[in-house]
Design goal:
This protein is an alpha/beta fold. The chain has one domain: Glycerol-3-phosphate (1)-acyltransferase (3-Layer(aba) Sandwich), CATH 3.40.1130. It has eight helices and seven strands, in the order ααββαβαβαβαβαβα. β3, α4 and β4 form a beta-alpha-beta unit. α1 packs antiparallel against α2 and α2 crosses α3.
């Protein structure tokens, strides 16, 4: 019975997202024609769609910050990744315009497609050409003063309950080469509400707890000690992750 209720909750959540997306689509379609100029408006509409769908189904976010975050600055934001809801969590957290870098398959999703064709960055992991194009677009976004969200684990892993997997170097390389601070974000328990895409265990109402750590400035790092930066970010995030998720 519980499994059935969770499945019903999941499908109702997806219907809610599609409903709010449908309401917003005419505006998005118009804004997408000149998305570079209308970037901030597209980000705002995405935030509205995400939060409306989440709150409608009784899901909310509770945020704790290690220090005050100056959202007038841009960051390479590095969250862990266990849930489809992580995208919504980031739209809730970020108080300034930002883009996601994500897998190219998101271009096939009817909701995320318009964002990944405009303000976000799709990348095909096994293609050097795709990776290079994604990197160039990411640099342009950062140079324009906007933040960039990269999930350093690279994907949601198949393990359940999830663990915090080792980080790939891409986010740290980009931050160091452009002297942009890293903003680590630990999404502690979104997987308990909705793991991965929800197809296996469904979803339920509840509170997602998030810890935003202090920015890590990259001016003292270079390509020689890039791995050290990755280890520092991972260890700080792992300490917070383990508070609620023993692995």
């Amino acid at each position: 019975m519980l499994k059935l209720l969770r499945k019903i909750h999941l499908y109702t959540y997806f219907v809610a997202i599609l409903f709010f997306f449908s309401l917003a689509y005419p505006f998005l379609y118009f804004l997408a024609k000149d998305y570079e100029k209308q970037y901030n408006k597209i980000v705002t509409i995405r935030r509205w769609i995400s939060l409306a769908g989440m709150y409608t189904l009784g899901m909310k976010v509770e945020v704790d910050t290690e220090s005050d975050i100056d959202w007038s600055k841009n960051y390479v934001i590095c969250p862990n990744h266990t849930s489809f809801l992580d995208i919504t969590v980031l739209t809730y957290l970020c108080r300034s315009p930002f883009s996601f870098m994500g897998k190219i398959e998101l271009l096939n999703n009817p909701v995320t497609r318009i964002f990944f064709k405009t303000i976000d960055i799709p990348v095909k992991r096994d293609s050097k050409i795709s990776s290079f194009k994604a990197y160039k677009k990411a640099i342009g976004i950062l140079n324009d003063g906007k933040s960039l969200v990269i999930f350093p684990e690279g994907k949601i892993d198949d393990s359940y309950p999830p663990i915090l997997h080792s980080f790939k170097s891409g986010a740290f390389k980009m931050a160091v080469e452009n002297n942009i601070p890293i903003l680590p974000v630990v999404i502690q328990d979104a997987w308990r509400i909705l793991w991965d895409d929800g197809k296996k265990y469904g979803s339920r109402p509840g509170t997602i707890h998030v810890k935003i750590l202090s920015p890590i400035y990259t001016d003292s790092y270079d390509k020689e000690n890039l791995d050290q930066l990755g280890v520092e970010v991972y260890s700080k995030m792992k300490a917070i992750w383990d508070i609620q998720n023993k692995s």
